[in-house]
Amino acid sequence: MFFERHDGGERAILVHLDGQDPAIREDPHEFQELARSAGAQVISFVSIGRYQPSAKFLLGSGKVEELRMQVKEGEAELVIVNHTLTPSQERNLERALECRVLDRTGLILDIFAQRARTHEGKLQVELAQLDHMSTRLVRGWTHLERQKGGIGLRGPGETQLETDRRLLRVRIRQIKQRLEKVRSQREQARRGRQRADIPLVSLVGYTNAGKSTLFNTLTSSAVYAADQLFATLDPTLRRLELSDIGPIVLADTVGFIRHLPHKLVESFRATLEESSNADLLLHVIDAHEPERDQQIEQVLSVLEEIGARHLPILEVYNKVDLVEGVTPHIQRDAEGKPLRIWVSARDGLGLDLLQQAIAELLGEDIFAARLCLPQPLARLRAQFFALGAVQQESHDEQGNSLIDVRLPRVELNKLLSREGLQAEAFLEAHTLQ
C-alpha cells in the first residue's frame, strides 16, 4: 500500500512561508531539493511573507484564494507546504484548494517510503506513516454515519472511523513488536562484535553530505549514492582493515535534516542505535555548503536526541575539491589529537589521512609491544595466543619467547591480573625496545 508509487511524479506547487522566527523557519532551497527527491514536477514556487500564521489555513484567506487560482490554471495535483500543518489546517486547505495538500513531514515520509528497500526499513517507514496518519483519519470518513440516539437513527456498534483507528492501533502494535525483534538481533550482533573486540565506526551527518560516497570509496562497496536528499535509508555495515589497528566495522546510516520529524526519529530508533553504540562517529560535513554551521547544529541536536552526543566525534569536511584554496589535511587540538579532517570522497583525496586519524583515535588504548617471556611464563604466553593477540613469535639464545603482541590495554590488564601479576612492574621487566 505504502511502497507502490508510479514513476511520473506529480504536478506540484510549492508553498514556502517566509518572515518567520529564524528558529522555526525552513530553508527554501532545501525544500525544493526535498520535492525534487520525491519526484514532484514543480510547476510553481510560491514564497509568502507571513509573520503570524492563521489557525485555519496557516496562510491568509487572500493568499489561499490566489493559490486556488494558481492550482486551477496550472492544473496542479498537489500543493506542498514547507511547514508542519495541523490536521485541521491540512483539511481546510484541501477543501479550499480542491486538491491534495501535503506538509513538510508528509513529504519527508513519502521520500522515506520510496527509499525503503529492506524489510526492516519498510516497517520503520510504515510505523512513522501510520503514526502520522492516525491524527488525520477523520478527513476520509466525514461522509459516513455516526452513532446517534433515537428510533431509526441508531448506528452500528462501531463507526467506520472507530474501526479504522482500532485497526491502525493493532497494526502499529504489530510493527513495534517486529522492530523490537530487530533491535534484539542488532544487540546480539553488537555483542558479538564487542566480544571479538572489533570497533564500530559510524558515519553520521546531514543528508546529502556525501556519507555513502565516502563509505563506498573506503570499503570498495556499491551502496546507492546520488545527489539527492535521503539517498540512503537502510543502514549498511562493512568490514574495513586499517593497517595500524586491524579490522573495524564501518556503518553507513540515514542522513539527518533540519526539524527531522520526531515520529521518524522514534520509528528509526533501532537503525539509529548503530550510531549511539559506535566507538567513534565520523561526522561528515559538506564543506561547500553555505549553511554548513546550521547543518552541524541540526546533526548534533539529533545525536543528542538518540543519546549519542557524548561519543567521540571526528569531523570529516567532505567535497574539499569544490572549495578553492583548501587541500586535504588534518586539524588537531592542543594535545595533538585529530579534531577534523578535510577530504574529497568523490576524488579519493585525503582518505589515507582519514584512515590515519581513525587509527589514532581508536588506537589510544591499544597496547602494542614486543615481550620477552621466559619459560616460567609459558602459561601467560598461551593466554596471549588464546586471545589472538600474538602477531609474531621468535626465540632468543636463552630460549625465551619473543612475542609481538597487540591488544586493548584493558584486556592486557585483565589478563595480567588473573595471572597475579602487577601490570606496571611486569611491563617494565619484560618489554623490549
Give an overview in words.
- The chain has helices spanning 28-38, 61-74, 87-97, 104-115, 119-134, 160-195, 211-219, 262-267, 269-276, 292-305, 351-362, 378-386, 409-418, 423-430, and strands at residues 11-18, 41-49, 78-81, 100-102, 200-205, 236-242, 246-252, 280-286, 313-318, 329-332, 338-342, 366-373, 390-395, 401-408, 431-432.
- It is an alpha/beta fold and 433 residues long.
- Helix 10 links the parallel strand 8 (280-286) and strand 9 (313-318).
- Helix 1 packs across helix 4, helix 4 packs antiparallel against helix 5 and helix 5 (119-134) packs antiparallel against helix 6 (160-195).
- The N and C termini lie far apart (67 Å).
Radius of gyration: 28 Å
What is the terminal separation in angstroms? 67 Å
Q: What is the subunit arrangement here? A: single chain
Pattern of helices and strands: EHEHEHEHHHEHEEHHEHEEEHEHEEHHE
Strand content: 15-25%
Overall spatial form: elongated
- Helix and strand content put the structural class at alpha/beta
Overall pLDDT, averaged?
81
Trace the largest sheet across and list its strands.
6-7-5-8-9-11-10
Largest sheet, strands/sense/barrel: 7 strands, mixed
Proportion of helical residues: 40-55%
Which segments are poorly predicted (pLDDT under 50) over 5 or more consecutive residues?
1-8, 139-150
How many extended strands? 15
Q: Can you count the helices?
A: 14
